Amino acid sequence: MIEKNILTIAILEGIERSDRCPLCYLWIKSEKRLMEYLLKNEVTMSPEFRERVLAARGFCNRHMHLLLKTADGGGTEDGLGYALYIQGVVESIIKALASLNPDNLSALGKSSGGSAIARRRRQRQALVLLSSRLERAIVGEKPCPACESLWSSEKGYLETLVRMLDDKDFREDFKASRGLCLPHFISAIRIASQSKLKSPLDVVYTLMEVEIKHLQLVNNYLSEFIRKHSWDFRNEPPGLEVEANRMALNMLVGVEGLYSRSLKISLPWESEDRRR
Ligand SMILES: [Zn+2]
Ligand SMILES: [Zn+2]
Fold first, then answer.
1. Model pTM?
2. 15 C-alpha vs ligand 1 centroid, how far in Å?
C-alpha cells in the first residue's frame, strides 16, 4: 500500500498525465514554478538568495534565458527582479576583473632577463595564470542556484519513485506505464542501489523490464517511420510512427534542459565540480 503524501501524489500525477517520462514531466513543472518563484519580490530582495546568485555569478545559460522569458511573459512582478540579480553579477565581475591587474601579471612575461626562449616561456606562464584567474572571476564558485533547487526536488522524486516501486502492487501498475527516459532510468537505478529497500532486485528488474519494452517500442516506430519513407511504401497513410523521432529523443536524453549526460560521471548533486 502506497502512503499518500505530496511526493507520491506528484509521481502518480506524472504517470497518469504525461505522455512521456513522468519524472521529466515533474522536472518541467518544477522548473516553471521555480522560475516564477525566483522573480517574486520576497526572493529577489532576499540578501541570502542574492548572495547565492553572486557566488554562482548568476544562473546557468538555460536558467538565465528561461528566467528572462518568464519575466517578459507577464504573470510575475516584471523585469526588475531580473535586473537586480544581473546588475549584482555584472558589478561583481567588473570588480573581479579590475582586481586582476594586467600590469602585475604581464610584468612576469615582460621582464627582459634570460634568453628569448625563457622569456617566451614566462609569457606563456603569465597568460595561463591570467586565463585561469579570469575564468574563476567569471564562472563563480558555486553551481546555478536554480539548478541546485531542481536537483533537490529531483532527488526527492527519485527516492519516492524507488520507494513506491518497493511495493508489489505499484510495480505491476508501473509496468503498464510509459517508463522513464534514459537519464532518469540511470538515476533511479543508482538511487535504488543506494536505498534500503525490501526487494531491491525486484525494483531494479521492474525498471529494466519497462525500459527495454519502451526502447523496443521506440525502435519499432523508428523502423516504421524509415520504411514509410522508402519509395515503395510512400503512399501508405501515416500512423503513430510520425511521432518516432520525438519519442526517441525524449527517451534518449529526457526533456530539454535535463541534467542528462553528466550522469555518466555522477549525479549532479553529488558531483565534485559543481560549477557549470
Ligand atoms: Zn525523464
Ligand atoms: Zn541552472
1. 0.82
2. 11
